[in-house]
Amino acid sequence: MTNTSGDAHPLADAMTTSVSVHDEATVLTVAGEVDLATAPALENAIEATLGSKPPVVIIDLTQVSFLASAGMAALVGAHKRAGETTRIMVVADGPATGRQLKVTGLDKVFAMHTTLDGALTALHQN
Fold it and tell me: In the chain, where are the structural domains located?
């Protein structure tokens, strides 16, 4: 069924997530716009990813074109839910993601990297 009325959640499909596993890290790749309409879907994807209690979750935001405060709140929520059992790393670069995370100080909360390869390399060095 297709919603053509344009009233329910017209931007609900503006963001996609996918999960993959690289060694001991579970990678949640996010693409599109993370805003007030799509942040709940991001929170659900993060919750599902954390559910299996992986040792490391890398949230890859390099394909995100817009990151609103609701998206940043979802990242903070992920950090709180992960607790001591799961290490959270964030991959973000450029004006759409990296700059916002630095301006808000969230780059001090998360281990941030500019590429997924960089995050995976750092993981193996620790």
Answer: 15-125
Q: Assign a CATH topology to domain 15-125.
A: Transcription Regulator spoIIAA (3.30.750)
Which residues on adjacent β-strands are paired with residue 30?
17
Residue pair 64/32 in contact by the 8 Å Cβ criterion: yes
Beta strands in the chain, from DSSP E residues, in sequence order: 15-22, 25-34, 56-67, 87-91, 111-113
The SS3 assignment for 51 reads helix
pLDDT tens string 20-71: 999 889 999 999 999 999 999 999 999 999 998 999 999 999 999 999 999 9
